[in-house]
Design brief:
Elements: H1 10-24, E1 31-36, H2 43-54, E2 62-66, H3 73-77, H4 87-91, H5 97-100, E3 102-104, E4 107-110, H6 119-124, H7 126-135, E5 141-145, H8 154-159, E6 164-170, H9 176-188, E7 193-203, E8 207-214, E9 222-229
Parallel strand pairs: 1-5, 1-6, 2-4, 2-5, 6-7
Antiparallel strand pairs: 3-4, 7-8, 8-9
Helix pairs in contact: 1-2
Length: 230
C-alpha cells in the first residue's frame, strides 16, 4: 500500500517538509522535473507526496503533471481513471486545460491523457513547451513526473525547459556508475540539477531515513536527514 503524505505519519511528513523548505527558498524554481535513474526507486510516490506537501502552502498554487506516458503512475497515486483526458489531449487539441484538470484538496493534477502518441515526439513539440510555460502564470509550483533517465530520453528533453531537476535515488539499489551516467546526461542538456532524494535508506533496524542533498553549486550542497518509517 502506498503511504501518502499527511496520512498521519509524522516522520514521513517531516521528511517531505524538509524537501519543501530547501526547494522553496530558491524563488527561481517554479517548474521542477522529478526523475530517477532506474525503475522502482519510488519516484512517482515521491512526486505525488512532494506535490501534496507543497499544496499546503498558504497563497500558493501547485500542479503536478504526469509525463511518464508509459506507466501513467500518477493515475494510480491519485486514484484517477486511466481513461481520463490529460496533457496529451491538450497538446493534440482534443481538450482544454480546464477540461483535463483533476483536483485533490488544493492540489491540481494533470495526467498523461488518452492520446496514443510517441512520448518523445510529444515532449519535443512546441505546443508542449508552450503549455508548460503558460502554467507559470497560473501556478507557483509545477512538478513534472518523467520516466527514469536510463530507460528513455524523455527526462533529458523535459529538463531543457524546466527550472530544475530533482532525482529520486533508491539506497543500495543504484550503482554509482549509473548515477554518474545520469549526471553526465543531464549536464549535456544543461539541466539544473538541484538535488537528490535518497529513498529507502535503512537505519537502525526497521527504520528508514530520507536523505536530501540540495544546492546550486557542487561545493555548496547541503544535506538534510529526516527519519521516516517504511
Amino acid at each position: 500500500m502506498t503511504i501518502k503524505y499527511n496520512d498521519g505519519n509524522y516522520e514521513l511528513n517531516e521528511a517531505y517538509r524538509s524537501i519543501r523548505t530547501f526547494i522553496s527558498v530558491d524563488e527561481r524554481l517554479k517548474t521542477i522535473l522529478i526523475t530517477s535513474t532506474e525503475m522502482d526507486e519510488g519516484k512517482s510516490t515521491s512526486v505525488a507526496n512532494i506535490a501534496r506537501c507543497f499544496s499546503e502552502l498558504e497563497d500558493k498554487k501547485t500542479i503536478v503533471i504526469d509525463c511518464d506516458f508509459r506507466t501513467k503512475s500518477l493515475n494510480d497515486q491519485f486514484d484517477i481513471n486511466r481513461g481520463s483526458a490529460g496533457i496529451s489531449n491538450i497538446v493534440y487539441n482534443e481538450k482544454t486545460l480546464d477540461e483535463c484538470i483533476k483536483t485533490e484538496g488544493k492540489l491540481d493534477i494533470l495526467t498523461c491523457g488518452t492520446v496514443n502518441c510517441n512520448p518523445s515526439v510529444l515532449l519535443e513539440m512546441s505546443r508542449t513547451k508552450d503549455l508548460i510555460n503558460s502554467l507559470r502564470d497560473k501556478y507557483d509550483y509545477i512538478f513534472i513526473d518523467s520516466p527514469p533517465i536510463l530507460r528513455v530520453n524523455d527526462a533529458c528533453i523535459i529538463a531543457q525547459y524546466t527550472d530544475g531537476t530533482l532525482i529520486v535515488s533508491a539506497s543500495k539499489e543504484v550503482d554509482k556508475n549509473q548515477v554518474k551516467i545520469v549526471k553526465d546526461r543531464l549536464e549535456k542538456v544543461n539541466a539544473n540539477l538541484v538535488g537528490v532524494v535518497l529513498n529507502k535508506f535503512q537505519f537502525e533496524g526497521n527504520k528508514s531515513y530520507s536523505y536530501y542533498g540540495y544546492g546550486e553549486e557542487e561545493n555548496k550542497k547541503k544535506r538534510i536527514f529526516r527519519r521516516k518509517k517504511r
